[in-house]
Write a structure and sequence with these properties.
single chain, 283 residues, mainly beta, Jelly Rolls, 2 domains, seven-stranded mixed sheet, 1 helix, 30 strands, elongated
């Protein structure tokens, strides 16, 4: 199935069980094998390679096919290789020559072999997002993302060392029911990648550094957490992810609730649907 207003260039091969959405661009030398789905407004660069069999053997034609889905508005760079069963999220960007071995989150920019997250796309879908600088003034600082507040926490220094402090009801605007600490994270890995239906979170990188990506469904922002003097409050129904951990990074997360699997939203499309429904927006 091929949608409307597509641009399919020379030497492109499209097998039987393939779905191509509307306004898709497929440059020269691309092969789309059974199980590949390209949603609307996807861009596939020249000689990008798709696969659908994780253990190929000649003559074995009755094996189940792994489906590869490239979601709406995503772009795959020239000569990139996409392994079987991969999902590339909405508006994500895969750099030229990358080898994609894991699912690519929505709005992320990945590159390398294996592909790793290098950044996120900003509110303008053609430009990478850059981390905002946290003001030096102690106190709360609003974010462009609804439901996210950045705090410059008090830091006290004397001959005995440094002390950073946050108080419930002031810097931490909720009662703490749980905490967890994330550490020894390989730099290629991404933590988070979810939203909460009802729980609040407060994040402080107490050692090392990492980057925090937040998204309210319309606006996106990145923060560089590189000091125990920076805290970020994330309200319910905000999509968040942490990535680019330094080897010595220790991230502390305070939560307003006990661990409840049903409170997590792990699918970005479901998150957007819930946000739009709450705002009365019809897609």
């Amino acid at each position: 199935m091929i949608g409307r207003d597509c641009n399919i260039c020379d030497h492109t091969f499209i097998e039987n069980d393939v779905r191509v959405g509307d306004r898709v661009t497929i440059k020269c030398g691309v092969q789309l094998w059974n199980g590949v789905v390209l949603e609307n407004d996807v861009f596939i660069g020249p000689n990008a390679t798709f696969t659908n069999d994780p253990f190929p053997r000649s003559g074995q034609h009755d094996k189940p096919i792994s489906s590869t889905v490239i979601h709406e508005g995503a772009s795959i760079g020239a000569n990139a290789t996409i392994l079987p069963g991969i999902t590339v999220g909405r508006r994500a960007l895969v750099g030229a020559g990358s080898v994609v071995t894991q699912d690519v989150p929505a709005f992320s920019i990945v590159a390398g072999n294996p592909a790793q997250i290098k950044g996120y796309v900003g509110a303008t879908p053609y430009q990478p997002i850059h981390a905002v600088a946290v003001p030096e003034k102690v106190g709360p600082h609003p974010s462009s993302v609804s439901g996210v507040t950045v705090y410059r926490l008090p830091v006290i220094q004397d001959l005995r060392g440094l002390l950073s402090v946050g108080e419930i009801g002031r810097q931490i605007p909720f009662e703490i029911k749980r905490y967890f600490i994330v550490y020894e994270v390989p730099t290629r890995d991404v933590r988070g990648e979810h939203a909460h239906r009802g729980q609040h979170q407060f994040l402080v990188c107490i050692h090392g550094e990492c980057r925090l990506f937040v998204d309210d469904g319309e606006n996106r922002q990145e923060m560089h957490l590189n000091s125990p003097g920076i805290g970020v409050h994330i309200a319910p129904m905000v999509w968040g992810a942490q990535y680019q951990y330094s080897p010595d990074a220790v991230l502390m997360v305070l939560s307003s609730g006990e661990y409840q699997p049903e409170d997590y939203i792990r699918d970005y499309d479901e998150f957007r649907e819930l946000r739009n429904k709450a705002a009365g927006v019809t897609q």
